[in-house]
Amino acid sequence: MASLNKTNEELKLSKLFDVSKFTAVVTGGGTGIGLMITQALQTNGAKVYITGRREEALNRVVELYSTGPGKIIALPNKDDVKRLADEVASKESSGIHLLVNNAGIARDNNTRFSTNPKPDSKSAQSICKATQLLFPKGPLV
Known about the structure:
- The protein has helices spanning 13-16, 32-43, 55-65, 81-91, 124-134, and strands at 23-27, 47-51, 71-74, 98-101.
- The protein is of the alpha/beta class and 141 residues long.
- The protein has a 4-stranded parallel beta sheet, with helices on one face.
- The protein is globular.
């Protein structure tokens, strides 16, 4: 709750978005939206642990963007949530303040993790069928 202070000091941009005392974990932090979230947090002072399927992408993010004032730390090859949690807990005794559970997309053979076929997004019939499955009672208005 904001105080009745006339200066509104706590509402200044530099204080409103200050995450310098935050520790965050961003899954999928090596590319796309996860990378943008990682950059924004790091630029505003947070310590950010990033995870992802491709170690080289994570290491590249650390190399290019961990320039301060915050810090980016790559946690590659995390096959399961328990191991990730244990590693972060061993490094951060006070825990994390923010978890960004960023979903990923497997678009090609380098990022694919499933043998399920891709949905056909070019066929109008397939799109119509998918829409009917998602909204069986018709479109939301």
